[in-house]
Write a structure and sequence with these properties.
The chain is of the alpha+beta class. It has helices at about 1-20, 25-35, 120-125; strands at about 40-50, 60-65, 70-75, 80-90, 95-100, 115-120, 130-135.
Length: about 140
């Protein structure tokens, strides 16, 4: 029962934080009513490969952004299309938002940006890593 309440509190605060309708007074009143979330963010490392959906080849120069508890962290795929980025995630979310953007222009082709949710398990949090993520990007004609 206590864990369920923690999850509800954290979910409510997360929804309010990302909602454009949220004001400081509304957040304060909800915290007074439901309590502040008690979950501490956990550092999680994400690694994988970005490939072209058209050619199935790795794409270098793709910016990878991970949305975390306090901040967004950026990285870029290397010459083999591999990325490795870490940020703090709240365990009750059981997911992380990653955004992939082609920032090098036409150097290796043009690719559409992709905003995706990566599901996480309790094992991922315990290990502090989510590995072998494969992201396919569509080309822009």
């Amino acid at each position: 029962m206590k864990r369920s309440l923690k999850i509800r509190r954290a979910l409510l605060v997360r929804i309010m934080r990302f909602s454009s309708l949220c004001s400081a007074s509304l957040l304060a009143s909800c915290v007074m009513k439901y309590g502040a979330p008690e979950e501490e963010p956990v550092p999680v490392n994400f690694n994988g490969t970005v490939i072209s959906s058209a050619t199935n080849t790795e794409i270098p120069g793709i910016q990878v952004q991970i949305m975390g508890y306090h901040s967004s962290i950026y990285s870029e795929t290397d010459s083999a299309g591999v990325f490795n980025v870490s940020n703090e995630i709240i365990e009750v979310d059981y997911a992380a938002q990653l955004v992939f953007t082609d920032v090098d222009g036409v150097a290796n082709g043009r690719f559409q940006a992709k905003d995706t949710i990566i599901p996480l398990t309790s094992s991922d949090f315990q290990a502090g890593v989510k590995s072998n993520i494969e992201i396919k990007l569509d080309t822009i004609d």
